[in-house]
Each structure stands twice: as C-alpha cells, then as structure tokens.
Amino acid sequence: MISKPERGLEMTPEASQPMTKFKLPLRLKDKRRRTVYLVMAILVFTTVLTIPTIIPKGVNLAVATSGLLDNLRIMMLQPAPSNTTMESLMVALFQSIALAFLTTLVGAVIAFFIALMAARNLAPTWLINIVQTVMALIRAIPTILWVLIYSVALGLGANAAVIGLTFHSVAYLVKVYADSIDEISGDTLSALRAMGVGFWPLVSQVIFPTIASSLLSWTFIRFEINFANAVAVGAAAGAGGIGYQLFMASGFYFDFHEVGMIVYLILAFTIPLEIISYKLRSRYIKRATK
Length: 290
What we know:
This protein is mainly alpha-helical. The chain contains 11 helices and no strands. 78% of the residues lie in helices and 0% in strands. It starts with 12 loop residues before the first helix and ends with a helix. It is a multi-pass membrane protein.
C-alpha cells in the first residue's frame, strides 16, 4: 500500500526560529561597561579631590548655605524693583527681545543664500567643503566670545553685540538650512534643470516653498537661542537690555529683590518661547526627518 503523505511539512530548526537583531558579544559589552564605570569613578574621585580647593579658606559652609537659601527666598518670594522702575525693566526686556529678533532676522536672510552653496544637491563638492568648513569653525567658537572679539574692534556696546550674534547665527542656520535643502530629491532638481528651469526660479518656486516650514522652525529655535545670548552679552559686552539690568542688580547693588523681579520677567518670556519651540520641533522638524 502507498502511504499517504503527511499533511504538513516540518520546518527545520533554523527556519522555524525568528530572525533576531544583531547583538554585541558579551565580552565586548562587558568591556564597554567596565570602561564607562572606570571613567565615572575617575570623574567622581577628581570631583571629590577638587571640592576642597574650590571652597575658600575660612568659609563656614553652614552659614554660607543658610545665606544662599535666604537669598533664594528673597529672590523667589519677594521680587520687587528697588533701584529702578518697572517701566525701565520692561523697556530693557524689550531691548533684549529686539536684539534677538534683529540678529535672527538678518542672520536668517544671509544664511539662506550661503546655504545654497552648502547644499549637496545644488553646489559642487569643492564649494560645499569650503563653506561647511568655514561655518564649522565659526560655530566652534561660542557666541559670547565672538561678541567680545568684536568689542575689541568696535568697543563695548550694542554694535558688537549685533555683529557677534549675527555672525554666529549665520553659521548655525547655514548648517540646518543646508540639511533641509538636502532632503529634497536630487533627481527632482536634476529633472527640472533638464527642462530648462533656471537656478533662481528653482530656488524661489521649488526649494523655498518645499522647506519653508522647516526654515521657519529652525529660525524660531535660533531666535530662542539668541534671546538667551542677548541676556548674557547685555552684561558681558555692555549691550544693555535686561542682561545689563541683571548684572547691575546682582553685582553692583546686591539687590536680590530686583534680581528676583528680573528673573521672573525673563521666565515670563522664555517659557512661552520654549513651548512654541517644542511644538514646532515636534510638528515640522521631526516630521521632516521621518
């Protein structure tokens, strides 16, 4: 008699097992873990050794801690303008906002045209390498140092702050703008060029409308950064604004009531900025990277 074939085929053990993701060998994972632990132990040990050198001699830590908590209580619970008026503080805050807005706007316009020379689907390789290298060198130096560098040439004041903030803003925005342009398909741009579309019509009618939302998000994020920098350079470079008022209240008058009022004014502007910036990143930038 002919035996009937079995209904199902047995799968080999190799085929029946699901595919697993690549995992690091156990020895390599242990080696990395030991390296991380060793670095952390060295940092903790170094911190413990250097703490006594940071604390000045003759300082009573208990008294100093009590004074710090008392100053924080005054700042957070008893804010009030003492050496100036509330109107002056509001004007100073508006000056810092205007400085951040101006430097962001000018930097965004300049950065967009430079980004066209740094985009891989538009410019030749040699030009891309030059632009990206120069922008990376500019970004490597903090904004406050650029402001101080221009202060040597132009003197302390708003002029050095405007140029320094704009200079660093251009370098920052060129990178993110160029990355946004790179997301456009190079084949699409090549096809449009083959159809006879010129460079500037391509930029104005294809590139800019396509990445407008991403450009807006990155520009607003840079505005948020520039406002924080405007507060810092207000004291460091004598640029005025709310940063200069904060420096005078804390380092000259030692008036913690006024320091608390200035801190609350800054927070009242920066917290809505942070919320809007987060929503823009979530809606446009993260969507564009998917």
